[in-house]
Amino acid sequence: MNILFSNHSLTNYRQLLSKSLAFVPTMGALHDGHISLVREAKKSCENVIVSIFVNPLQFNNPEDLKKYPRMIQNDLELLKQAGVDAVFLPSYETIYPPNQEFNIQLSNNSVESVFEGQFRPGHFNGVIQVLHRFFSLIEPDEVYFGQKDLQQCMVVKILIDEYFKHIKFNIVETKREQSGLAMSSRNLRLSKNELQIANQIYQSLLALKNKEVYSQLACEHEIERLNGFGLKTEYLNYVNLPNMVVSSDKNGNQAIVYAGFLGNIRLIDNLLL
Ligand code: AMP
């Protein structure tokens, strides 16, 4: 497995490849959710490159950035076992050279400002900058993203449509613990008791998925139930995709999206309907 730190080594690696390349961006502290992206990528591309980079630009909360789990040796072992060809481990300066400006904007920016965009101002702007940089440096044929970050997928789709039309965009379904809890690097920071509470999020999503009629009232009811366990829900809504507009239309392309805090840990999840 090639471990690449610089743009120079990345360029050398890229130039030697003659077959298709899939790219899986991550922030490390890898779990089976990340590895499922690698597995899917390997099904359609000969080569898979994974990046591990905790991107400061997408953290609106400095404490969250500081406490974000970092376990690089373990990550490299998992990626090696998964059969990844190359890992890109850039420094901050490699991604954001001091003499360059990073201000990529999407002309279709409606999806960026709601839900995650509203509760984490600047988050998607940071995601767009880092991905634009990665896609330009790596020049992948395909990219793989997790449905776990559903709104991110909608934003990345726009980024690709507007700047990288030649890249094939793939969404991989959310990997869950047996309890139903969506796997997340941030789960490492939850206590045993908090994990039990976090499991309730999936139960609420399922309950809302199974409603005969979708309604905001049903969401309010589930928010009350979750907050009763100690969660501080930011949003729980039926939305229409890809625009992430609140909608109870059962015939549309719908999802239910959730975000909330358990102590200092922010959790998100969703179900496609
Ligand atoms: P992160 O390291 O959290 O930035 O995630 C890197 C990629 O892995 C993103 O595309 C995520 O959506 C995806 N991912 C994270 N958790 C899961 C999961 N439980 N199932 C599937 N994909 C995931």
Overall 3D form: globular
Under the CATH scheme, the architecture of the largest domain is 3-Layer(aba) Sandwich
Taken together, the total number of domains comes to 2
**Could you name the CATH topology of the largest domain?**
Rossmann fold
What is the count of β-strands?
Answer: 10
Ligand types: adenosine monophosphate
| Euclidean distance between termini CA atoms | 39 Å
Determine and state the CATH class of the largest domain.
Answer: Alpha Beta
Radius of gyration: 19 Å
Full CATH superfamily name of the largest domain: HUPs
Major sheet strand order: 1-4-3-2-5-6
Residue share in helix = 25-40%
Beta-strand percent range: 15-25%
Q: What is the number of helical segments per DSSP (H or I, 4+ residues)? A: 10
Biggest beta sheet attributes: 6 strands, parallel
Based on secondary structure, the structural category is alpha/beta
Uncertain runs: none
* H-E string: EHEHEHHEHHHEHEHHEEEE
Quick check: average pLDDT?
A: 96
